[in-house]
Specification:
25% strand; three-stranded antiparallel beta sheet
């Protein structure tokens, strides 16, 4: 039943219960990002989403920044680590809609099906991460958990490697990814060559000192 409540949250709170929780939530807010209850029972508010993406994203080239690989009018680049985005959403917005809104805000051209939204919870000094289903309502989860992000936070990830829908990628996207991977492989190879060359020089120097006559 608890699992069902989490996957179908809109079915388990009356309007009065929602009103009480929103009042309690707003009284604890410290960053002015309060929730608002409308006359029709739908409420709106804010969630913050940590962007933790390992693979490059594809955006319009005019919007790109950072390390890039160009392909016509689009650019693939890595999103900076620790990027956090704040979204204003309603209680009716699903996880899938939140992902689409995030990608639109960043001008990301990638298929939303490539990404998943996770919730990160802190319980008894332990951190738990769980992927949310497309049907869940993030604002409800935020309301129930309260405004403290150390109790509950949202994270955007790519699907795990085994779950990646490669057919969702376009040919230019895949070609961009290959070019980026080739570049990074060459960079790492040059670093390794320099490191081992330095080790070799030191070993030869040490051996020369050991075997030097007199």
């Amino acid at each position: 039943k608890d699992v069902q409540k989490e996957t179908e949250p809109h079915l388990y709170l009356s309007k009065e219960e929602v009103k009480e929780k929103i009042q309690s939530y707003n009284s604890s807010v410290t960053d002015k990002l309060k929730m608002t209850l409308n006359a029709n029972g739908i409420y709106t508010g804010f969630i913050k989403v940590q962007m933790e993406l390992c693979r490059p994203i594809t955006v319009q080239s005019s919007q790109s920044q950072g390390r890039c690989a160009h392909s016509n009018s689009e650019t693939a680049f890595y999103l900076p680590d620790g990027c956090v985005n704040t979204l204003h959403i309603s209680s009716t917005n699903t996880v899938r809609e939140v992902i689409e809104a995030l990608l639109k805000k960043f001008f990301v051209a990638d298929n939303p099906a490539k990404f998943a939204l996770y919730k990160r919870c802190h319980k008894e000094d332990q951190v738990y991460t769980c992927k949310l289903s497309d049907r869940e309502r993030p604002l409800y989860l935020r309301l129930v958990a309260g405004p403290r992000t150390e109790m509950l936070s949202f994270v955007l990830h790519e699907h795990e490697t085994g779950e990646v829908m490669w057919e969702a990628f376009t040919i230019p996207e895949l070609q961009n990814f290959l070019r980026i991977l080739d570049k990074e492989e060459n960079e790492q190879l040059q670093i390794l060559k320099k490191r081992y060359a330095a080790y070799r020089d030191k070993l030869e120097e040490a051996l020369g000192g050991v075997w030097k006559p007199g």
